[in-house]
Amino acid sequence: MLNQKDYTSSYTPTWCPGCGNFSIYPATKMALAQLGIEPHRVAMVFDIGCSSNGSNFYHLYSFHSIHGRALPVAEGVKLANHSLHVIADSGDGGAYGEGISHFVHSCRSNIDMTYLVHDNHLYSLTKGQASPTSNRGMKTKSTPYGIIDQSFNPLATAIINGATFVAQAFSADIPGMTEIIKQAIQHRGFAFVNILQLCPTFNKINTLDWYKQRVYKLSEAGHDSGNYTQAVTAATQPSEKLPLGILYQIHKPTYEEGIPSLSQMPLVQRSVDRIDITESLKTYN
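The structure corresponding to this sequence follows.
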């Protein structure tokens, strides 16, 4: 039987004391272990940021991409070898700042993969600047007089742009987070999980007590994850109410299933040694 150690590298995590990554890291490994997915069947693509140092700490196929570009790299991995379980891992800055266009179009495409976003409402690796999900009015090193912009809403954005699995977890709830990640991995299609993450070093506003006063579980509120209207309503509530669980889940054909050359077998298994490209090359002469 698989356990966390099977997905653990020889490197020791170097996150700050109290960082939510110390909870997300084991939750992800427990989800994979409980699903019985062997490490060589998993590929994780990381962004740039605190969470993305995880590329060193997991024992599985991993790739450290550039800022905001975890999704296109992960999609390339999945399309080349869709027999792998592909997970993209990013922070809120890379996901909703530099990578916002990739996020929106990934929701539309419905490629069969999982996207985990560590949302601590800051760019913490660069010492606490405002990110797209920072609360309006919040004072940071880059906004000393308070943030003027409205906070970006990743949950609503994912739902209205076609994501087939949209969920939210909390880094202080490891059992609940593990279960959500498991369901995201099992989902066939683009599965997005926004993880509310503690950052005690730089975020003194969104603390554990702050979250405890606001989070609630959708499973205890009679939520229907197949109901689009209920999902949008849950995603657009004021910040005084933060839903945890699966907001929205539907099933429809994946991107790969719509392309015959991909649906038949992974590209990496196709033989190309008998393809004659002579005629194609003549067009460049």
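The chain has a mean pLDDT of 94.
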